[in-house]
Amino acid sequence: MTTTSPALPSLVSVYRSRASVELKEFFRQRESVVFTLLLPVLLLVVFGAVLDYDIGAGVTFTQYFMAGIIAAGILGASLQNMAISIATERSDGTLKSLAGTPMPRSAYFVGKIVQVLAVTVAIIAVLLLIGVVFYDIDLPSGANWLTFAWVTALGAAACTLLGIAISSLARSGRSASATVTPFALLLQFISGVFFQFSSIPTWMQTVASFFPLKWMGQGLRSVFLPDVLAAQEPAGTWELGRVALVLSLWCVAGLLLCVATFRWQDRGQ
């Protein structure tokens, strides 16, 4: 009598299962939801109420701030979220355990990517809803939605890969937040999230231009602001071609850094 071994699940079903696990784990962690999903909303509410003034061409600061806070939300959902969660899972042995299972290792990263996409979409939807209902934000129109989509996609991809790479810098899961959060906040302050980028000192603008957040914010400003305000950008234009180039280069660099630095367990384990 011969016995047949059960059929192995398809790769698609494994990916789907892992993505479901990642989403459930994220939304069950109150701190992750508060700092990743609700913090950008709270910042929009506070800044929108306090700094509602005209920056020129009949545009309010809140309209300007919408591009920056969406970019910051994407950064939080991707770079911060990935760096902290992966460092924590590496430190508590979750990654080592997963690496020892029959699950394809690619499924782990697919699950993380799906989580980033879902959280990013949720953040953008909530921010746009609050902006339109409470602050009369003008939404993008026509082809600007396409620009919005590719800037968001490239920015999220670049920051996700960078976050995976940065996760290896943390000594442990406990130190991950202290390692990553100051870096993310610094980027937000020098990249035109909380202030008009034109009001930031030139040397800070130069430093910011080496990182994806500045270019993500600039690309998003092009869809929320009239073209007349492009004159306030360092080059006097939105430079969408350069935005696409820099974010694409960060995707490539981030992937190479991931391959070179990613570990399934802490050093010494």
TrEMBL record:
<feature type="domain" description="ABC transmembrane type-2">
    <location>
        <begin position="31"/>
        <end position="265"/>
    </location>
</feature>
<dbReference type="InterPro" id="IPR051784">
    <property type="entry name" value="Nod_factor_ABC_transporter"/>
</dbReference>
<feature type="transmembrane region" description="Helical">
    <location>
        <begin position="63"/>
        <end position="88"/>
    </location>
</feature>
<dbReference type="InterPro" id="IPR000412">
    <property type="entry name" value="ABC_2_transport"/>
</dbReference>
<keyword id="KW-1003">Cell membrane</keyword>
<keyword id="KW-0813">Transport</keyword>
<comment type="similarity">
    <text>Belongs to the ABC-2 integral membrane protein family.</text>
</comment>
<keyword id="KW-0812">Transmembrane</keyword>
<feature type="transmembrane region" description="Helical">
    <location>
        <begin position="109"/>
        <end position="135"/>
    </location>
</feature>
<dbReference type="InterPro" id="IPR013525">
    <property type="entry name" value="ABC2_TM"/>
</dbReference>
<keyword id="KW-1133">Transmembrane helix</keyword>
<keyword id="KW-0046">Antibiotic resistance</keyword>
<feature type="transmembrane region" description="Helical">
    <location>
        <begin position="243"/>
        <end position="264"/>
    </location>
</feature>
<feature type="transmembrane region" description="Helical">
    <location>
        <begin position="182"/>
        <end position="204"/>
    </location>
</feature>
<keyword id="KW-0472">Membrane</keyword>
<dbReference type="InterPro" id="IPR047817">
    <property type="entry name" value="ABC2_TM_bact-type"/>
</dbReference>
<feature type="transmembrane region" description="Helical">
    <location>
        <begin position="147"/>
        <end position="170"/>
    </location>
</feature>
<feature type="transmembrane region" description="Helical">
    <location>
        <begin position="33"/>
        <end position="51"/>
    </location>
</feature>
<protein>
    <recommendedName>
        <fullName>Transport permease protein</fullName>
    </recommendedName>
</protein>
<dbReference type="Pfam" id="PF01061">
    <property type="entry name" value="ABC2_membrane"/>
</dbReference>
